[in-house]
Write a structure and sequence with these properties.
It is built from eight helices and 16 strands. By secondary structure, it is of the alpha/beta class.
Length: 336
Amino acid sequence: MIFPNRVRSGKFVGTTAVSMNCSDNRDCLRLEKAYKTFEKFGFGAIETENVRGENTIVSSSGKTRAEQFTELWKNKDVDWIIATAGGELLMEMLPYLELDEENAKWVQGFSDVSLLLYYITTKWQIATLNGANIKAFGMEPLHESLVKNLEIVRNAENSKQKSFDKFEGMRFESENPYEPYHLTEDVCYKALYPEKETSVAGRIIGGCFDVLGVLFGTSFDYTKQFCKNFPEGMLWYIDNCEMNLAEFRRRIWQAGYNGWFENANGFLIGRTPVSKEYEGYGYEEMLHDCFDFYGVPVFYDVDIGHVAPQWTMINGAMGEFQFLKGKGELTQKMVE
């Protein structure tokens, strides 16, 4: 594994719209506030041409998005690239993306952006960060998850993250462009097999399975080759944005039959806004149907993904997760 160097004071955070862009005044105000946040930590900010524009499903063509991402990748003054926003159609840039290991740097985002992160890590074996998109850094005050995110990239060694106390039970719309998370619900992690081990370790890989599924059967799927490189086994994390229970089960079935989970040591399933019963089908029942076959620990409602706040997951790091009475702790080590 290639782990990028720590983000250095005096260098730049670059943002580019690999999926959607900033299309309204509120988004742009939050973006500018994020730049001021980075300034406080000693970083400048650079954005590509496609970051701001009209409200469309993608910021620009797949080729343009790949070119503008590559501009930041090759820029020696940029230590950290953070996606402008998530979206729907990032996959269109993959055919145009060619990277070199010499310029390896931290790339971060989540949701649709996790497809880019996953592709970079599995194809080039360069570690990436599944975490907040750049506009989150425009909130005031800055949530502890984002402070930890900054700590991880500034130290770029090992990290330990503990479960949060509260999560955002409902998305809150406000006229305040700098609105923080509205944390109203108690965090409670769950073990699908409470009688089994309360800890699991392995090489970390995963992302938003709503979008990772587009790789199945394509020339862009390097998952099996990547996993075979790590005989210590994989620790998968799974984020579900919009899939209902049947769709989620289909996606996990596809991944399994594409060989993704052949050396899985365990699974961390993020909190999801789509966990309600579907056609009489319960959430825990669905998880058993998906994962009983693998006989490994599974923990769910973890601080990962679309229900804030979220951990910063380091694709390619060695991870150890420990579970205790509804709480959890994740240690990530940058082991080549």
